[in-house]
Amino acid sequence: MQTVEVSAPARRTPVQSRSQHTVQRVLDAASSLLEQMPLNDVTTTRIAAEAGLSIGALYRFFPDKQTIIDAIAVRHVEQFRASLEESVMKMLERELANLETFDPALVLDSVVDAYIVYLDAHPDFRTISFGRYISAATKERQASPSVGLPALLKNFMLQRLGIPNTPELDLMLRVVSEAGERLIAYAYEQPTREDRDRVISEMKRMLSSYLFPSDAASKQL
Asked: How many Å apart are CA 202 and CA 207, to the nearest integer?
């Protein structure tokens, strides 16, 4: 598998609505191609043609394919985060109405379940995530407990579960994010959906016991 270790060149940020529309056309075209063919076959020339643009128009906003891949990843993470805030986090707030019966492991399990649903619906995101084609710099930002997707889980743990904000918590969230990403990719390599779901179930149990050790220990008693 390919791992991108360098950050992608900076791309021009669109300001006018017409420019923003052009950027979205490029990203939509690239996502469509990623659903049809291997990533190595997706070139900037093909993306431009799919978007109905000249290659020069594409290069005004994206200097190379890597910046397009990163922009697709960021767009998906933002969409997934918005869906989490609208559905999963609101559901967890309702569950918290009864603290005596609330299981902290439900937090991680619910996020993972929602992520699997999202991955099933977006094969282009699966391609760039599982192949580890996202640049290191972009992945670092999106996986950061301070500003990335894990920040949503962290804020819930701090504000609603009363877990202390420590450097150790940040490290744990980074470990959970990295381990979860790799194990989900492994789960999708399984020959059947049943096998995939068994791996995901074991992953959730393992990561929940790591992130909420006292709760997991109490269940063993």
From this structure: 9
- Residue 185 CA: distances (Å) to CA of 37, 117, 200, 208: 19, 14, 10, 18
Task: Report the first-to-last Cα separation within the chain, whole angstroms.
Answer: 42
Residue type, 204: K
- Residues 6+ positions from 112 with CB-CB distance below 8 Å: 180, 184, 200, 203, 204, 207
pLDDT tens-digit profile of 72-99?
Answer: 999 999 999 999 988 888 888 777 776 6
Residue 185 has pLDDT above 70, yes or no: yes
Neighbours of 150 (CB within 10 A): 22
pLDDT digits (tens, 9 = 90+) for 143-160: 888 888 899 889 888 988
Token digits of residue 194: 């049943």
Amino acid at 57: A
3-state secondary structure of 37: coil
Write the DSSP string, 120-157. Answer: HH-HHHHHHHHTT-S-HHHHHHHT-TTTSTHHHHHHHH
Enter the tokens of residue 37.
């063919």
Q: What is the pLDDT of residue 220?
A: 40
- Residue 196, helix vs strand vs coil: helix
Q: Which of 49, 2, 50, 4 is nearest to 28 (CA)?
A: 50
Dihedral sign for Cα 71, 21, 120, 210, please: positive
Name the nearest CA neighbour of 203 among 102, 136, 129, 105: 105
